[in-house]
Write a structure and sequence with these properties.
Layout lengths: L11 E6 L9 E5 L6 E12 L4 E5 L2 E4 L4 E5 L5 E4 L16 E4 L5 E4 L7 E3 L2 E6 L9 E4 L4
Parallel strand pairs: 3-6, 5-12
Antiparallel strand pairs: 1-11, 2-3, 3-4, 6-9, 7-8, 7-11, 10-12
């Protein structure tokens, strides 16, 4: 799903909504902070083709487990990730983390809560561009692997 909307403002969000699916996803194994088992680091790249105006996320669906870490990054623009309802992330006070912000070429890495329920976590990503908003549908799925 792609929506293009012209605006006069210099910095408008390119909104990326997340929906349902499975992926193999880029990942690397890293030690769990507790050290008792292994967790994976999953990388989510927020991309923009400035010639065509296309905005997308790789991977567009991400399957993770409790305790895994997710790294969000964009080499193209500043960005933010927003969860309207449930979120797999918590802040330092164990409160739901519904907004994550990042700067261009500055990855932000977060752990998936150890007590998060299995399920599909819908979110959207704002990428701050110049004259329009684009939408696509990626998701995070927490639960047992394939």
């Amino acid at each position: 799903m792609t929506r293009t909307r012209a605006k006069s403002s210099w910095a408008l969000p390119a909104v990326l909504l997340l929906a349902l699916g499975l992926i193999a996803g880029r990942s690397a194994t890293v030690a769990n902070p507790a050290g008792s088992s292994q967790s994976k680091l999953h990388e989510v790249e927020i991309k923009v083709d400035f010639e065509t105006g296309r905005v997308w996320v790789e991977p567009d669906t991400l399957r993770v487990a409790r305790g895994d870490r997710i790294s969000f990054n964009s080499d193209a623009a500043d960005w933010s990730v927003h969860f309207n309802r449930n979120t797999p992330f918590a802040d330092a006070n164990a409160e739901d983390m519904r907004e994550i912000r990042g700067m261009r070429a500055g990855p932000t890495q977060l752990p998936v809560r150890g007590n998060v329920e299995d399920g599909i976590y819908v979110y959207f990503v704002n990428v701050y561009l110049q004259d329009r908003t684009e939408s696509i549908d990626p998701v995070i799925i927490v639960g047992p692997g394939d």
